[in-house]
Design a protein that fits this description.
- By secondary structure, the chain is mainly alpha-helical.
- Helix content is 73%, strand content 0%.
């Protein structure tokens, strides 16, 4: 691992799988952190960019959670009726977003992640950003397909 000497002893003890997940989480954050190119790399606007990063991670998590829920309903044949509980779904989405904000902005971990990412080799940064973009697109595509199949399975007209 390239940044092994930069990691704390607790982080060095992470399994290789946990390390890959951590790097992908880092790459997702950085992908959306750097989305507003006009302000990057100025760290004067790091909090504003951090909100972008938290939003991107929250979108991926929301797409994944709703896709799993849709597939659970399709396979079980039991419909939870989330369409009548949109307030609850929105509350859950906001909870995910504010949890990410807490860890990434309030605890100032987001900018530290971005700076750590900048220390990686160019080749690794490009690979991680490409993987992050692929994860985002895949999660959105799976959500879109799951929603269509959900509507078909329960006879819901779009």
């Amino acid at each position: 691992m390239e940044t092994l000497q930069q990691l704390s002893p607790g982080e060095r003890a992470l399994s290789p799988r946990a390390s890959v997940i951590r790097e992908l989480y880092l790459a997702l954050f950085v992908l959306f952190f750097r989305l507003d190119v006009r302000r990057w790399p100025s760290y004067a606007n790091a909090n504003a960019n951090g909100y972008n990063g938290a939003l991107g991670i929250s979108l991926v998590e929301t797409f994944a959670a709703l896709s799993v829920l849709f597939w659970f309903e399709i396979v079980s044949g039991y419909r939870f009726g989330l369409d009548s509980r949109l307030g609850l779904v929105a509350l859950g989405i906001f909870a995910v977003y504010f949890t990410n904000l807490y860890f990434l902005i309030d605890r100032a971990r987001g900018v530290a992640l971005e700076r750590e990412f900048a220390c990686l080799s160019r080749r690794k940064r490009v690979a991680l950003l490409a993987a992050a973009a692929a994860i985002f697109v895949a999660s959105a595509a799976v959500f879109y397909l799951s929603l269509g199949l959900y509507q078909t399975a329960f006879g819901i007209a779009p």
